[in-house]
Structure formats: structure tokens, C-alpha cells
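[09:14] KT: can someone run the structure on this one? pasting the chain below
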Amino acid sequence: MTIIVCASRLSVPSTLNGDFAVRIDPRLQMPENVAAQIHDAVGSMSSLPGPFMASAFAEPLTVEMRDGDLWVRAATGDEVTELLTSGGYEDDDLDWPGDLADATGHVITWQEYSGGEVCMEPGCRVWSGEVILQSGKGVTGPFYVHEAAARAWAFSTALKLSRAEVFEAQVVPYTMARSAAPGLLRLGDPESRRLMRFWESPLRSWGVPYPVRLPA
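[09:31] RB: done, C-alpha cells below
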């Protein structure tokens, strides 16, 4: 089984000096064979890995100390962002909060108000998770440059709710003007609402949302 952990944690001094029970969050509903692989992998680690990805399980996971035991639960979107962020873009002309968003290869045309300047610039890709409730309402997550982070947000948020409340979790792809992306990533929903009020928005959905499979 392949395990990917956060590189920044590899140099952390060992915190697993004693004997700790490894427990799997029951909300994950892992098959017994998968849970056994995850259990053995976590138990063999010399330090707390935090967020990690395992080939044996579809969604990112994380390990935390809780009541003297090691608990494996679904990783959040922010934890997966930490796991995947590589950095090293000091020469970029925009102040990104983390990794750059991937270019789409398309040009975005946007206009803040009718009669205002028409702007054209390269587009980039961002992602957001959503949880659709049985009531018809929904919960929308932050925007991420990593698709896996948006998936993790949708998956972990759905698991925190009663299964009877949740209709579906999904990931929504967006494209947007590159210059507006850092602000959106930092400010989230208030900024997305502001951009959506433009005469021609620099932020728009791009493709069909796809479902994130939840435990039965």
C-alpha cells in the first residue's frame, strides 16, 4: 500500500514513543481489510503524520491524538492543502496564499459594471466542495487550487452531518480570471459573492459537478 504524508512532518521528532491504540473513525465505514492496512501503516509510523493519502482508501485521511489513542479520520480540505502545497513560486507576480492555480489555457473576459473597462486575461482553475441536503439546501466550502482538497472538504463535511440529512456531496469546478484568484482563495464566500455581482463575472462554473462517494 502506498502512503503519502506531509513532507514538513517527516523531520518532526518521534511522538509515538509509547504504545497507543490505533482507532478508525467508524463514520468512514472502512472494509475490514482496508482498515487493517491503515491500522498497520499508522502503527508503524515513528511520528504523527497528520494528513496522508493511502492507495487503499479513496479519500485523504489524517491522524490525531485523542484521549490517549491515535484516531484516523477523514482529512479536511485545509489539511489536504497542507499536504499538497509545494510552494517555491517567489517569482510569480501575484501574492498567492499557497500554490498557484493551474492555467486552463483559456482567456476570461470580465467587466465589473456596464460600460466599464472590458478586461481579458488568462483563466485558471479552482475547485469547491458542496454538500447537498435532503431539505434541498446546501453547504458550500472554500475554494481550493487542489481538486483533492475540495473533495476532502466535501467528504469530511458530509461525514460530520447525520447521514439522513445528506443527499449528496459533490465537487464543483470553476474557472476564473487569474488576477482575482489569490483574493478569492483568501477571502472565500464574501469575495465570490462580490465577483458574482459583476456585470460579467471573472468567476464562473466550468464543467459539470461530480459526486463524491460517501459511505453507505
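[09:33] KT: thanks! Residues 7-17 have pLDDT under 50 and may be disordered.
[09:34] RB: yep, looked fine to me
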